[in-house]
# Entry
Amino acid sequence: MHVSHTLYCLIISLSINAWSQSLGEVIVYNTSNSSLVYNQINCIKFDENNRLWIGTQNGLNTFDTFDNWDLFNVENTSGGLSSNIIKAIEQKNNISPTSMFIGTMNGIHSISEENFWFNYGGTCSPNNGTINALLYNNTLWSGSTDGLCIETSDGNWEIQNTSTGWYSNNITSIKKNPNNDMIAIGTMNGGLITYSSEFNIYYSSNSNILDNTVLDVMFDQNNNIIICTPQAGLGVFTENQSWIWFNTINSDLPSNSLKKVILDNDNSIWIATLENGISHYKNNIFYNYNTSNSNLPDDKINCMEFDDSGNLWLGTNNSGLVKIIPPKTNINTNDENIINVYPTIFSSYITIESRQKLDVTMLDQTGREIQKIKLLNNSKTMNTSTYPSGIYFLNIISPNDHKSYMLIKN
# Structure
């Protein structure tokens, strides 16, 4: 009875905390108040000049900090775009001059700084169809509804799809680990695929992945792969090859149907759901925002990016482009009350920092006590090297507060 009551209190505490943070200032750009060509936005990407490229269902916009808008479409790019439906955007190099790859419903196109357009990658047959994902990693990786095309250093192309042993031809996402050369690939009903000198497929038949459809992938600072699925919630594939899952049962996620995931400058996670707004996983707590509890204009978010100032930009399904300016930290915040717990996804240790006297208890996901320490006006490290992989709850009692944090052992 004590274990069940403790776990219940932890879940209630996490649920209450999940609504206590402000989203910040919300600015909306749509066809009524700006030069945005269409309100359904499929993809966005910042270039090295902090100019935003906006792929819509009816053309390509660019937008800069001086409120200058440009439009590219089939009608005004002679010899350029062959479709107004823009699905993916990637920059060739993060240096000047700008050269962008544009994925459309009808192949890949490239545009240079001088607005010179040309078709790209047509010699690889999947590149002639619907392009869902692009990654430039010295050469171009292109994911379509017909498979993956990889440009080789000599200008040729390699194909990966069901003809080479994959379970699906439909590629949804391609991301590179910034810490090493590993690449992660999401598929529609084909599992998670990784590449580091060779391809590895993680499917329900050979791994603990809970959904074979992976709509987006991302690497965190600890080299874990975080995936969004349409039915099983958020999956974390750790560096030591174990799976951990967040869903509506074991966390405050508002939905198991997730579409996009991105990491901010503080290494916290932002998640776009299919139709329930966005979630922010920060300080071991989920904060959920939708049209009912915030100024978000749309609960369907198709894409997310951060600019150089740390502002979050969203492309919505029906309501245009959204800029979120995070709230400024209150300079009058009492440092005495600040408690820092890190890392969120841990291996051998967890550090707790505070200027208060704390009673700290670690519980497993059943509510069973694993470890207990006291902290007196300093920082302390908990040795977690013997913990099994899984979800844990850190229960912290201070003189004026009671907080619970959900952590992951990889």
User: Anything to note?
Assistant: The first helix runs from residue 2 to 17.
